[in-house]
């Protein structure tokens, strides 16, 4: 048996939004929009779900008409502060929705898209503490490796739009 290494060129697009809102305000808005508490309950109940219908009903209950739920989060500044006490807030949120992902991670499309499902948001406090950046890789720039594939590209571009709507909503200064 042999091992073959292949390097596939990929041109990713990193989207960055800047806001004067504090990172705590942005995080609060994100966690409200993705129903952090309900998402955590969903993740712990997932092993006991026994049917597609039950799965989808549970997801609809968590998302409450929104596009995304929390899959995982991590605060990097909680450990980086031990190396540099001036570390700004740095948080990563993996957000998604299995009912959206099912269209992208399918044997009818490129299963390698699963590598970037769920999408991630980076919440980064500006170094001068005057606001926050929210960054993410544009899904359509990192998921389609086989060129234009019709329905798949349309589904990924729809995800681009949903993600952008969320980021605009949580970074908008009232």
From TrEMBL:
Record protein name field: DUF302 domain-containing protein
Gene3D superfamilies xrefs: TT1751-like domain (3.30.310.70)
Gene source species: Marasmius oreades (fairy-ring Marasmius)
Domain of life: Eukaryota
